[in-house]
Design brief:
The complex is a heterodimer of chains A (617) and B (439). Chain A is mostly beta strands and 617 residues long. Helix content of chain A is 12%, strand content 34%. In chain A, strand 9 and strand 10 form a beta hairpin. Chain A is globular. The model of chain A is unreliable at 217-225, 375-545, 557-591 and 593-617 (pLDDT under 50). Chain B contains 2 helices and 33 strands. Chain B has 439 residues and is mainly beta. The mean pLDDT of chain B is 86. In chain B, the strands form 5 sheets. In chain B, strands 15, 16, 21, 22, 23, 24, 26, 27, 28, 31 and 32 form an 11-stranded antiparallel beta sheet that branches. In chain B, strands 14-13-17-18-19-20-25-30-29 form a 9-stranded antiparallel beta sheet. In chain B, strand 4 (63-68) and strand 5 form a beta hairpin. The chains are: A mainly beta (617), B mainly beta (439).
Chain lengths: 617, 439
């Protein structure tokens, strides 16, 4: 079955007949591609471009299963739509390793800057609003997820591997051309009417919210920046609250979400974009598409009419239909699942562009169905408004925890130390020596300034956790292995975000003491840092971290986080980045951190960085 | 006509189904018998189609009222799960009067109570109507015994209906000002369930299910549907076809006989030129007692473009709803022309005969979209297009007979009927089954 989802990689799975020859089984290698065509046309005389042009679905092969005996057991293959090259839901992808800054950039300029080489340029319009933001350490899909709702844009990857983007109307059918209804004649003059033998509706309102708090940044009155939620409620998006709680009050349900891009001016827009999506309940409509010509009638992202009285009715749409009038709802097709039936073409394309015809070995049965309902594309929404999935998509559960505590009451004037998911030692500090507003530091290994500190190994639930602490005798200068890259004054009220800086991999940490035997599949590392000032007043800093496990050739980024000092108490900013191993970990893990400060560092005299590295076998 | 058994509309107009065995098993009932002793083979074959076309399947719900002269305790509402008719040449199945063994398997619903699920709204229009100008209505079976609806402002309007073959009831009631999402609940006994129903007849026999009909010559080439081949009626208003043309006849039940029958022609340009094509196919689009819709399809002479006319009639309605569609580039307008030497005058929705006809009534045609052309003198005509896309023209009309013409009462005049047409209601009746729905 093929499951296509709007602006998501979706999923596909095929089972090849037990009679599939061994030679064909062996031809299928993971990370190749699969192409589905409306009809099977063999391979004779067909060139690469012909397949691409004819494709109605192109997927990447991620899963290959061939567990039985050839001739007796089927072979299973599966993966995701080719758009997965933009980034998957876990944040894997062609992550931006340099900051991409945009100032009133056209949409096509934005797309051109973030599009990875794995996806070709398609048709891009400039109808979405201009982009003003910085992007860093996000997959291209992460950038799109964030910016599209703000700019009113959407995207799709065509089945010949091109990225199209523009407004919804640029890409998709917005005035429905198809009407699905029970008992419909498949012939009407002015609309493609289609009979759907079954129409089912299910509603899930468990994720409904009336308010969104989004972690963004705002300028503090006395300079610097505060962590604060940009909040959006229903009045901000001109909606009314249709629900009440058990006590008769307006249903007041809020959700706390992250803003993956710390760009002040867009926080409110991002919060409202998030609420606009989360305010809608999930509505799943299942249509039986046996009377549809799926690829010709509509595609995922198009809007269609569905009429199923008394449940699916909209009096404002009036269509002449079956001698009377239908009052259908215009509904966006969010996802579609369809079987690859006998007669369709199925071709495997290897990494060199050689094709293998699998068509004779695929014969799926089952109904094609579509899911329609609410579109979810905001920075918090990776899939149909499921907030948790969205949060997973931006990889920062620790921050969510943190924000959640903060939101539980009014913004506190001080933060208690150690407000964290992780145990933190506070006894190790070192002074800052730089006069620049920006300081940048690394936790380094022995090859650089020498490893200092102590190690703590703790086994928790079978997972190894060990902490490293900086030595109290180190001075800032010892750790300041990169030149400050501040481009502006350090005394401003906003962050000085350096646009052209790069990470210096030469100074990464190699931890030879990393356990080697207990890590089968995955390593997660979390880095936290905090800063402390003895002086009252506003102090803010932004911290970024990256982590790697393979000698520094591939870095996985956490997103920049904001900390604010309100008083003499210390502030803690948790960060998290993940480095994932495919197995065979050899005991090298690298962490690097940099800190941006918004104020003159005479107010900023202590900095502690703690790395916690935990492996999840 | 000896009434013996009816299963739904099987045997309702041709009473010659002889039950030979009835087998009960819980709520399951299997009835077997013969179709025989009818007047003609055509009647026998019509009975066959009535039975098998009612079987539950996608698009039909298979609810039938069963009435038995042999065993009145069998009377009730059922779902027709399956039905079979076996024709065997050596049993004279295809001889002069037919002999067709049948078996019907039914599930008893144990209810006389129904709910009307209604959907609809005031349709967008260019005749200046808005808000509560429309008059939504529903009409249960003629002879229904109770109706519950919390709606305010209900009015019950009564019209005489042509009596049912087993008739007891001579009038039908429509209840106006019931508005979605109201779900009125009403009860009726099985014998009266089809009274006042919107009913299609083909070749004089009641049609059930969603069959399609067409006429062919001896070379199997499609020919025109013949005069009287089809007739759509709810006992109040009746439309039937004219031979070899797209023309139709419209008439109203006057209490004793059909009155004021008027021939109406289809026109195909903005000068009122009468279409010379004819209907070749009749597709039953919907066939429920509460509403029956047919689609007449024809090819305009000398062209490949398709013309069609959808006729939709609700139980209790005093108008018939018409959708005219042309997919033909040669057609520049669709509408109606009345074969009537008398003049017409205009009103909000369209035109009607100026003076009363010999029965004291007036014909009416109206549209929600306004009319692009009209002639009010001899042979009045109107044309209008509500949906236009490329070569496709589509117009949305209602046809009616204004009872008592110039003296029509407040709910019966041309505009009031238009208000009923304009607030479009799609009604679907479901049985209310104790212990959970079987549907």
């Amino acid at each position: 079955m093929i499951t296509e989802e709007l602006m998501q990689p979706g999923r596909w799975d095929l089972s090849l007949s037990p009679l599939t020859p061994i030679a064909i089984r062996q031809a299928i290698v993971e990370r190749g591609h699969i192409i589905i065509t409306q009809t099977a046309f063999g391979t004779e005389g067909i060139v690469d471009q012909d397949y691409k042009d004819a494709s109605i679905y192109t997927g990447r092969v991620d899963r290959v299963g061939d567990l039985g005996i050839p001739g007796e057991s089927p072979m299973s293959i599966g993966g995701a739509h080719i758009s997965v090259w933009l980034g998957d839901s876990d944040g894997r992808g062609d992550v931006l390793d340099t900051t991409q800054s945009f100032s009133a950039a056209t949409w096509s300029a934005f797309i051109a800057a973030i599009r990875p080489q794995s996806i070709a340029a398609g048709t891009v319009t400039n109808n979405p609003t201009a982009v003003t933001s910085d992007f860093f350490a996000l997959t291209p899909k992460g950038c799109l997820d964030y910016q599209c709702p703000i700019s009113g844009a959407e995207w799709k990857v065509t089945d010949d591997g091109k990225l199209d983007s523009g407004t919804q109307a640029d890409l998709f059918v917005t005035t429905p051309e198809v009407l699905a209804a029970h008992r419909s004649l498949n012939q009407e003059a002015l609309i493609k009417a289609r009979h759907s033998p079954n129409i089912g509706v299910s509603i899930d309102a468990s994720k409904w919210v009336s308010k969104v708090h989004l972690a963004g940044t705002v300028e503090a009155a006395a300079g610097g920046e505060d962590i604060i939620m940009a909040s959006a409620d229903l009045t901000d998006i001109s909606e009314s609250n249709p629900y009440k709680d058990f006590q008769g009050n307006a249903d007041n349900t809020a959700v706390l979400v992250n803003n993956p891009v710390a760009f002040v001016s867009q926080a409110q827009a991002a919060a409202e974009a998030a609420l606009t999506e989360l305010y809608n309940i999930d509505e799943l409509i299942t249509l039986d598409l046996s009377n549809f010509n799926v690829s010709a009638d509509f595609e995922v992202g198009d809007t269609i009419y569905v009429y199923h009285p008394p449940r699916i009715v909209d009096d404002t749409n009036q269509l002449v239909w079956m001698g009377g009038v239908a009052f259908p709802k215009a509904i966006r097709v969010f996802a579609m699942t369809w079987p690859v039936r006998r007669g369709m073409g199925v071709y495997y394309r290897d990494k060199d562009g050689n094709y293998t015809d699998l068509s004779p070995y695929v014969d799926e049965v089952g109904e094609a169905t579509i899911d329609v309902g609410v579109q979810r594309t905001s920075p918090i929404g990776s899939a149909r408004g499921v907030a948790q999935a969205a949060l997973n998509a931006i990889n920062q559960p620790a921050q969510v925890f943190y924000i959640a505590e903060k939101a539980a009451s009014a913004l506190p004037s001080t933060y208690p130390e150690g407000r964290s998911m992780m145990a933190i030692s506070t006894d190790t500090t070192w002074p800052l020596g730089s006069t620049d507003g920006l300081v940048e530091t690394w936790i380094t290994g022995a090859g650089a300034a020498g490893y200092r500190g102590r190690q703590v190994y703790t086994e928790v639930n079978g997972h190894y956790t060990f902490h490293r602490f900086m030595s109290g005798t180190d001075t800032w200068g010892n750790w300041q292995l990169l030149s400050p890259k501040l481009t502006g004054s350090g005394t401003g009220t906003a962050y000085n975000i350096v646009t052209a800086d790069t990470w210096e991999t030469a100074y990464s940490l190699t931890d030879s003491a990393f356990p080697t035997s207990s890590f089968g599949a995955r390593i997660n590392a979390a880095v936290s840092a905090w800063a402390r000032s003895p002086n009252a007043g506003q102090l803010a800093h932004r911290i970024q971290c990256e982590i790697s496990r393979d000698g520094g050739s591939t870095w996985t980024s956490g997103r920049p986080q904001i900390g604010t000092q309100y008083s003499a108490a210390s502030t803690f900013v948790p960060l998290m980045a993940h480095a994932t191993s495919g197995g065979g970990v050899t005991g090298t893990i690298q962490v690097r951190i940099r800190v941006y400060s918004s104020v003159n560092d005479t107010d900023f005299d202590d900095l502690q960085i703690t790395a916690t590295i935990a492996g999840n076998p | 006509m000896a009434f013996t058994l009816s299963i739904g509309r099987f045997g309702i107009d041709i009473g010659a189904a002889h039950p030979q065995s009835v087998r009960w098993s819980g709520d399951q009932v299997v009835i077997s018998g013969h179709v025989k002793d009818v007047a003609s083979l055509d009647e026998a074959l019509a009975l066959r189609d009535q039975l098998v076309n009612q079987v539950r399947r996608p698009g039909t719900d298979g609810i039938v009222a069963v009435v038995s002269a042999l065993d009145p305790t069998l009377d009730g509402f059922y779902i027709l799960d399956s039905a079979s008719v076996a024709a065997q040449s050596n049993l004279a199945s295809y001889q002069s009067t037919g002999f067709l063994p049948f078996t019907a398997s039914l599930t008893k619903l144990n209810t006389n109570m129904f709910e009307s699920s209604i959907t609809g709204a005031l349709l967008s229009n260019s005749v200046g109507k808005s808000g509560t100008d429309g008059t939504p209505f529903i009409a249960p079976s003629a002879g229904f015994s109770t109706l519950h609806s919390p709606s305010a402002g209900l009015a019950v309007l009564t019209r005489a209906i042509e009596q049912h073959p087993h008739a007891l009831i001579s009038q039908s009631q429509r209840i106006v000002n019931i508005t979605p999402p109201e779900v009125p609940v009403w009860t009726v006994e099985p014998l009266l369930y089809y009274h006042g129903a919107a009913t299609l007849k083909y070749n004089g026999f009641v049609v059930q299910g969603l069959p399609t009909f067409h006429a062919t010559d001896e070379n199997s080439v499609d020919t025109a549907l013949n005069d009287g081949d089809w007739e759509l009626s709810n006992g109040i208003i009746r439309i039937r076809g004219k031979a070899d043309s797209v023309n139709i006849y419209l008439a109203m039940w006057g209490g004793v006989s059909w009155e004021s029958e008027i021939e109406i022609q289809m026109i195909e340009d903005t000068f009122g030129t009468v279409s010379t094509s004819f209907w070749e196919h009749l597709q039953v689009v919907r066939c429920d007692p509460e509403e029956t819709t047919i689609r007449l399809i024809g090819i305009l002479n000398g062209s490949t473009g398709q013309n069609s006319m959808d006729l939709s009639l609700r139980r209790g309605a005093v108008h018939v709803r018409v959708i005219q569609t042309s997919l033909n580039a040669l057609v520049s307008a669709v509408g109606f022309k009345f074969v009537d030497a008398n003049a017409a005058s205009s009103f909000t929705y369209g035109i009607h005969r100026t003076a009363n006809d010999s029965d004291g009534n007036r014909w009416v045609v109206g549209s929600r979209t306004g009319l692009t052309g009209q002639s009010m003198s001899s042979n009045p005509w109107v044309a209008g297009d509500s949906g236009v896309s490329g070569d496709t023209l589509q117009a949305d009309y209602y046809l009616a007979i204004e009872r008592d013409g110039t003296g029509a009462g407040g709910w019966e005049d041309a505009e009031a009927v238009g208000d009923e047409y304009l607030h479009h209601i799609s009604e679907k009746v479901y049985p209310i089954v104790p212990g959970g729905a079987l549907l």
